[in-house]
Automatic annotation (TrEMBL), chain B:
Presence of keyword Ligase: yes
Family: Belongs to the GatC family.
Catalysed reactions, semicolon-separated: L-aspartyl-tRNA(Asn) + L-glutamine + ATP + H2O = L-asparaginyl-tRNA(Asn) + L-glutamate + ADP + phosphate + 2 H(+); L-glutamyl-tRNA(Gln) + L-glutamine + ATP + H2O = L-glutaminyl-tRNA(Gln) + L-glutamate + ADP + phosphate + H(+)
Major enzyme class: ligase
Keywords for the protein's UniProt record, in alphabetical order: ATP-binding, Ligase, Nucleotide-binding, Protein biosynthesis, Transferase
Species whose genome carries this gene: Cryobacterium lyxosi
Pfam families: GatC
Protein name, per record: Aspartyl/glutamyl-tRNA(Asn/Gln) amidotransferase subunit C
Gene Ontology terms, MF aspect: asparaginyl-tRNA synthase (glutamine-hydrolyzing) activity; ATP binding; glutaminyl-tRNA synthase (glutamine-hydrolyzing) activity; transferase activity
EC number in record: 6.3.5.-
Lineage, top ranks: Bacteria, Bacillati, Actinomycetota, Actinomycetes, Micrococcales
Length: 515, 98
């Protein structure tokens, strides 16, 4: 049954709907594959094997009884550990929440259950989503399926690696400055950050509330669209949730597969997100993709976004400021661990300080202290106040660009996957990875990453970022699906079919080698 | 912009309620100095006539009708607490003896 893990969610759904395959068979195939490969990759922090098989059996019974279910009913999915799940531990990759089982489901998780998707487990991430490599997880790194010595991106490295290694056809992620799109780029998978407010964040453990957004992770654009349709829409439990009604993203993706879908589409190339600092193979694949777009009838224009140069700086003031406030809730009273100080009196203040010292990792402490600094009297105007003004300028850059073009494109990340440890010692080197993805979060616009080939110098995946105006998420799916189809036609295969095989034997051999 | 000192980091850690070891204070002082130098460039373009944006979407306050809706039970609310006393969260002393 291993072939079941190779299928897209859409293809698996067809077999489930036509009853050629049962949800139990599909779920068992994925659980078996997790057992075989995840000891090594470590995409999952928790696997809910029995609960998943029970849920799958219920879907099979309902389908057998003739009930008409959502087309994704019975399709397995992995959940980033930042999302509350009432039957699974939810840690956000932090020791401070070790073993915490929330008393409620995040709205997006409730939507998945209602649609009959099978929750396989929770995926690894940088602690509280702070990072671009998943090296900041308190529970150990996740390995990139393309090269075990390299990072799977971050913060959602677990979700991207799970999908790229065929442990799940779908996953949920969260994107504050690129945490869905950058892992997608470096693992050869697909990731979408929806418009701010397009998907509920109720039950998503908050990092930076003016930037965070939950979105789909998958292997194909159409699969991401199917998942977006399940999780999107207004949620009264999230006061930043938009009340708009949304078109079908799946229909938008299908529209991209028709002949001439790219004809006349105005594509803007952002001048500031190219050139110096971009790996040669990334630039090469990006340029080739632009040529492919031209051949398909799209109109390419270079656009300038002069204030994007200040986006990373503004982001690393706004994010820590908001995070320092959001993470104040970890006070050792209502949830999480409690640690008593080694000396001194046992007051609430001392216990809270000892708990946070023991429970938070280095990067979380760094950002809380930075945020506390940026918000302190005397510095507020110079730092936080200025960063908010830069945010206005970046929104104006987007508005000017979208007055000329339909979508904007750039490489999803400046480089392919880097090696473990390469950027850990220098925080700014790590932060600059997100130069391409951060502007979309500051402006609230939707962004998508799709694979566009392997960099010739290292054979690792390169991603294309597509951005659209706020609320025009459907446009991403149309353009993304069209480009994906063109590339696969040219290659003669999908991107992930080229990833090295992960077999238990190979895993054993490499472990022996390490000794 | 001002230079960040170890005393400042220790004070910020107190404000943020995180005990830091002397070693952590040393490394954070160095890291923060570098980070602040890199991000201070925001003031280059943030002119007085540029309005600040706090939020990517123009949203106003959201209200709901003042009616009782289902909420967590006491058991659910206390289920993740590190310590409890009956139906309440048990917390360490608020005031020091001294």
């Amino acid at each position: 049954m291993t072939y079941l893990t190779k299928l897209s969610a859409a293809a698996l759904s067809e077999l489930l709907v036509s009853k050629q395959v049962s949800a139990v068979e599909a779920t068992r195939a994925h659980l078996d594959h997790i057992t075989a490969v995840d000891t090594d990759l470590h995409a999952f922090l928790h696997v809910a094997g029995d609960a998943a098989l029970d849920a799958a059996a219920k879907i099979d019974a309902r389908r057998a009884a003739g009930e008409v279910l959502n087309s994704l009913a019975g399709v397995p999915i992995a959940i980033k550990d930042v999302l509350a799940t009432q039957d699974m531990p939810t840690t956000a990759g932090s020791k401070i929440l070790e073993g915490w089982v929330p008393p409620y489901d995040a709205t997006v998780v409730a939507h998945l259950r209602a649609a009959g998707l099978i929750l396989l487990g929770k995926t690894n991430m940088d602690e509280f989503a702070m990072g671009s490599s998943t090296e900041h997880s308190a529970y150990g790194v996740t390995r990139n399926p393309w090269d075990r010595d390299r990072i799977p991106g971050g913060s959602g490295g677990g979700s991207a690696a799970a999908v790229a290694s065929f442990q799940a056809p779908l996953a949920l992620g969260s994107d504050t400055g690129g945490s869905i799109r950058q892992p997608a780029a470096v693992t050869g998978s697909v990731g979408v950050k929806p418009t701010y407010g397009g998907v509920s964040r109720y039950g998503a453990i908050a990092l930076a509330s003016s930037l965070d957004q939950v979105g789909p992770v998958s292997r194909t654009v159409y699969d991401a669209a199917l998942l977006h349709d399940v999780i999107g829409g207004h949620d009264p439990l999230d006061s930043t949730s938009l009340t708009d009604s949304w078109p079908s993203m799946a229909a938008a993706a299908q529209a991209g597969l028709t002949d001439g879908a790219l004809k006349g589409v105005r594509v803007g190339v952002i001048k500031e997100l190219a050139g110096d600092g971009f790996q040669a193979g990334v630039t090469q694949r990006f340029t080739e993709t632009l040529a492919l777009l031209v051949a398909a009838g799209a109109e390419i224009t270079e656009v300038s976004a002069p204030n994007f140069e200040y986006a990373v700086a503004a982001y690393y003031l706004i994010l820590p400021a908001e995070a320092s406030s959001n993470l104040a809730r970890f006070d050792s009273v209502r949830f999480g661990i409690r640690v008593n100080p080694a000396s001194g009196s046992l007051t609430s203040e001392h216990v809270m300080s000892a708990t946070r010292e023991a429970g938070f990792g280095d990067e979380v402490k760094r950002r809380i202290i930075l945020g506390t600094y940026a918000l302190s009297a005397g510095y507020y105007d110079a730092y936080y106040g200025s960063a908010q003004k830069v945010r206005t300028l970046i929104q104006r850059d987007f508005a000017a660009a979208f007055s000329q073009v339909d979508v904007l494109v750039s490489p999803s990340a400046p480089t392919t996957a880097f090696k473990f440890g390469e950027k850990l010692a220098d925080p700014m080197a790590m932060y600059i990875n997100d130069v391409t993805t951060i502007p979309a979060n500051l402006a609230g616009v939707p962004g998508m990453s799709i694979p566009i080939g392997l960099a010739p110098e290292d054979g690792l995946p390169v991603g294309l970022q597509i951005m659209a105006p706020a609320k025009a998420d459907a446009r991403l799916y149309t353009v993304g699906a069209a480009i994906e189809q063109l590339l696969e036609a040219r290659w003669g295969h999908t991107m992930l079919s080229q990833a090295p095989a992960l077999t238990p034997t190979e895993m054993f051999a490499s472990k022996e080698g390490a000794v | 912009m001002s230079e960040i000192t170890a005393e400042q980091v220790a004070h910020l850690a107190y404000l943020a309620r995180i005990d830091l070891s002397p070693l952590e204070i040393t490394s954070l002082t160095r890291d923060l100095g570098q980070i602040v130098d890199s991000i201070a460039k925001v003031s280059e373009v943030a002119t007085a006539d540029t309005p600040a944006t706090s939020h990517p979407m123009p949203l106003t306050n959201v209200f709901r009708d003042d009616v009782v809706v289902p909420s967590l039970t006491v058991e659910q609310a206390l289920s993740g607490a590190p310590d409890r006393a009956g139906d309440k969260f048990r917390v360490p002393a608020i005031l020091d003896e001294e």
